[in-house]
């Protein structure tokens, strides 16, 4: 069962109009990939915990970001993650539109991998 945190709803509602659909799509992908995750606010940003922290998203004035705590350990056959020389705080670069997000299947796959790492107790 998906449990949504009202603080995340507020965060999304207060975000710039361009950011709201991006954040909503990320949120859906996270819950689809890890239905047992918990939504929390950490460092003022929406984060998702599952047996510990595993991913986070944020919106700024001109871009959004999404990242994984253990990104370096994720398999990335589509090459969507910025693991080295990142251009933004997250691992998908600076996103300003839905077109810049990977498709849902890729997002869900990454989320599932991140959750499995926490299931297995893998440390970075």
Q: Would you kindly provide a written description of the structure presented here, covering whatever features stand out?
A:
- This protein has 124 residues and is an alpha+beta fold.
- The chain has helices spanning 6-14, 19-33, 104-119, and strands spanning 38-42, 45-49, 53-59, 64-68.
- β1 (38-42) and β2 form a beta hairpin.
- The longest helix is centred in the last third of the chain and has 16 residues, at 104-119.
- The mean pLDDT is 92.
Please name the defining characteristics of this protein.
alpha+beta; 4-stranded antiparallel beta sheet; 3 helices; 32% helix; 124 residues
Describe the SSE topology:
Elements: H1 6-14, H2 19-33, E1 38-42, E2 45-49, E3 53-59, E4 64-68, H3 104-119
Antiparallel strand pairs: 1-2, 2-3, 3-4
Helix pairs in contact: 2-3
Quick overview:
Helix content is about 30%, strand content about 20%. It has about 120 residues and is α+β, with helices and mostly antiparallel strands.
Our Rg estimate from Cα atoms comes to 13 Å
Shape: globular
* Largest sheet data: 4 strands, antiparallel
β-strand percent reads 15-25%
Question: Structural class of the helices, strands and pairings?
Answer: alpha+beta
The SSE order reads: HHEEEEH
Low-confidence stretches: none
Overall number of strands: 4
Strand order of the largest sheet: 1-2-3-4
């Amino acid at each position: 069962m998906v449990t949504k945190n009202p603080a995340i709803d507020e965060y999304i509602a207060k975000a710039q109009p361009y950011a709201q659909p991006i954040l909503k799509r990320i949120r859906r992908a996270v819950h689809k990939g890890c239905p047992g995750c918990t939504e929390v606010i950490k460092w003022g940003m929406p984060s998702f915990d599952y047996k510990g922290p595993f991913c986070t998203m944020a919106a700024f004035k001109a871009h959004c970001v999404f990242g994984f705590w253990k990104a370096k350990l994720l398999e990335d056959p589509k090459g969507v993650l910025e693991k080295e020389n990142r251009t933004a705080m997250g691992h998908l670069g600076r996103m300003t539109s839905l077109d810049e997000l990977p498709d849902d299947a890729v997002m869900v796959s990454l989320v599932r991998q991140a959750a499995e790492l926490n299931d297995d107790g893998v440390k970075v």
